[in-house]
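Self-study notes.
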Amino acid sequence: MDLTQIAASIAIGVGAIGPALAIGMLAGKAMESLGRNPEAADAIRTNMILAIAFAEAIAIYALVVAIIILFV
């Protein structure tokens, strides 16, 4: 196993931890707020999907960095 492969795997591993935790917390808080106020389901769902998309963008950046480390 080459040093660049180890660096790329560390980059994607560390870069995926943050978004995974963020998405889990977002979904948990969304379900909690839906339980408290079910009438606001549309607004909660819209904001949750937008926040999840931003968190996933960070994971995609980590994937791009890992691919750059691997192939450059």
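Second protein, same conventions, sequence then structure:
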Amino acid sequence: MRRIRRGRSLPEVELTSLIDVLFMLIVFFVLTAVFSESALSVRLPGAVGDPVSGDSVTLTLDDAGRVFLGGERLSMDEAVERAVLSYRWGGKILVAADRDAPYGAVISLLEKLRNRGVESAGLLVEASEER
């Protein structure tokens, strides 16, 4: 009697879990790239300062005196309100003012923060060597 030979079948690789992992990696890298970029570039004044650690919210003041929070342009009062909410939950408030920003706008922002109960707000500077 003659035996019928069947061809060996190739092992199958289950791709579903690999596709899920790949999708999650793509989502992670896209979100990381989006949130790590600063939406607004300001030229910070040069000074010597200490690095900031911990949770913080950054209020950005551009050279025209406009206020931004997280890349979103807001009125000064609205930006202060949102920053104060973060401050009350234990966060720090940082002010990144452009070196050409009107001095009065920076002082007004700091005064509004103080009037809302913020005891201290940090000023971001560009690192430079001590003079």
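Instructor comment on the second fold: The chain has a mean pLDDT of 80.
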